[in-house]
Amino acid sequence: MYKFSRESGFDNRIVFVEDYDTYIARRLVQAVDLWLNNPLRPLEASGTSGMKTPPNGGLNLSVLDGWWGESYNGNNGWAIGAEIRDGTIEFQNGVDSSSLYQLLENQIIPLYYAKPDGKLPLAWLQLMRESIRSVTPVFNTHRMVKEYTERLYAPAAQAYREFAQNDCAAASDLSQWKTRIRKDWPQIRIDQVEIGNKDRQNIPVGESLEVSARVHLGGVDPQHVRVEAYHGEAEDGGIQNPAITMLNEAGQNGDGTYLYRGSVPASESGAYGFSIRVLPTHPHLQQDHELRLITWS
Q1: What is the CATH number of the domain that holds 83?
Q2: Residue 164's CB: how many other CB atoms inside 10 A?
Q3: Mean pLDDT for all residues in the chain
């Protein structure tokens, strides 16, 4: 960035701030009107620098990643680009770059300099008020520390206490189980999926899809897997607003194949899409995808 700022044409347009720390950050957020955050999605861990801007009257211009994906409401700042699921990094960068320049040229700069009373940018001030109102009470360090503690630090401390007991017996058991489940996982496959009311094109809200699946587990104990229906509104060949419903074991064939059934509720009327998936489960697993093992229908 420093080298870029020294190129011809960027004189007095880019300032590279060295030794950035909380002292400098405090002064920047007190003076800035627009806070730009443009990482490559979905690599933004949080984006806490932008959270400091609204209490000081600044507006955010950011990709919809990290905290801004939750905070942006269309009236408290601007969102750069769109989520590209199947494109390359180069294509994503191109979309974001084009979006950024269009926002600056067509919306942000005209709004900033529009002063209908000849004194103040009234529309910009309205965005500032909405940003302060919608962001400040919800996105702050108090919430961040609270959620990190409740979701990460406290569970990690509890897991340490459990694993340290009885000469680390639980840790040893989990390690051995992980070795076995990784070895046996390739045996798992989903042989058959059926829907009880599959002739219905649209499911009214309040009704359910009756789903059953035959799953071959091979040598894997059924208590060590979780079978789920991953479902949502069918749109453009994909599943929108996905949800998860557990399927329950309902029988077996004796050859390592088990029958699972469940009811998938329709939260809204319309056409529904779904898929069945199998994940490993163990009382001492700390995260559902810890082993990176999953089988889809």
Answers
A1: 3.40.50.2000
A2: 12
A3: 89
Co-location of 102 and 208 in the same domain: no
Say which residue the tokens 């076995």 belong to.
Answer: 180
Range of the domain at 210: 184-296
134 and 7, same structural domain?
yes
Per DSSP, 203 falls in state B
C-alpha dihedral, 69 to 74 to 79 to 83, nearest 10°: 60
Q: Do 107 and 224 have their domain in common?
A: no
Give helix then strand counts, H and E, for the chain.
9, 11
Which of 228, 232, 219 has the alpha carbon at shortest distance from 288? 228
Peptide bond between residue 42 and the one before it cis (omega within 30 degrees of 0): yes
Q: Are residues 111 and 192 in the same domain?
A: no
Dist CA 150 CA 258 (whole Å): 37
Residue at 105 is within a domain: yes
Number of domains in the chain: 2
Q: Domain holding 238: CATH number? A: 2.60.40
- Which residues does residue 34 pair with via DSSP β-bridges, in sequence order? 59
User: Two tokens at 176?
Assistant: 């051995």
Where helices occur in 19-71 by DSSP H, the ranges are 22-31, 48-51, 68-71
Q: Provide φ and ψ at 190, rounded to 5°.
A: -105, 110
3-class DSSP state of 20: coil
Q: Are strands 189-195 and 295-296 parallel, antiparallel or unpaired?
A: unpaired
- Of 121, 139, 157, at which residue does a domain stop? 139
Whole-structure pTM value: 0.66
Residues 270 and 193 in one domain: yes
pLDDT tens digits, 106-155: 999 999 999 988 889 999 999 999 999 999 999 988 888 999 999 999 99
Exposure pattern of 261-273 as b/e (b: 16+ CB <10 Å)? bbebebeeeeebe
